[in-house]
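We modelled the chain as a single entity of 282 amino acids. Its sequence is:
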Amino acid sequence: MNSIQDTFRTYNGVEIPCMGLGTWQSKDEVARISVLCALSHGYRLVDTAAAYGNERGVGAGIKDSGLAREEIFITSKLRNADHGYKATLDAFDLTMEKLGLDYLDLYLIHWPNPVQFRSTWKKAMQDTWRAFEELYNAGRIRAIGISNFMPHHIEALMESAKIKPMVNQLKLCPGITQSSVVEYCKKNEIVVEAYSPFGTGAIFTSDEMKNLSQKYNKSIGQLCLRWCLQKGFVSLPKSANPMRIKENTEIFDFELSAQDMNIISCLEGICGEAPDPDNILF
């Protein structure tokens, strides 16, 4: 890969840029400005979610960019409270209204087992996926997928699914590799995306990463994104800082050695732990 516009391909042939802009914790106006800045620096993937509360801002940034709709890959996610067939269809319509779009490139179930559906999560998830399949078959979504799903959630989904998920978005960063679910996804042709590739900022305190930063003459953030790329993950760094947004694109002129890839992978504890989707409290 030579630029952030190079792509990973889903099993149904959809091309996903290898890196995009994450927008978690960015309010509408901040999201609008960040999206506009990122698109001006060559980003073509923007990731949002109903739960982020910034779909209108993301949509405004996309519109203000002046780029053709087909040039931008846009992802959103279903809010936890909206699991279920009818609720999902209604939620999707609201997401599209807020984004100001006619179609979505990727739509994800944000979490498999929300607290609101703890005792009925499997049926709620399966009913949700039925709505996803209907939207996909109607051409309103180019690719459908999941987020924070472990293998047992995917197996439960496939008990009734007609279409296999195309993407699984996971928390992946130095020390949080989620090897078993990543291997499962790759074996089953499910593209893996990495959210919070900086561990929500915790990785910047690592002495090991500081040493590698000096070795490669690259920022810690750039090392994290290069690690994601070499692991075969689509990375979704969040930033509202124009300098950081540009800096994050500059990861294609170096390569991490196998030894240094392993050092980064083994930095357990610095960025906490992967969330347990069966015990989240939201």
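As a brief sanity check on the tokenised model: Residues 7-265 form a domain with the TIM Barrel fold (CATH 3.20.20.100). The mean pLDDT is 97.
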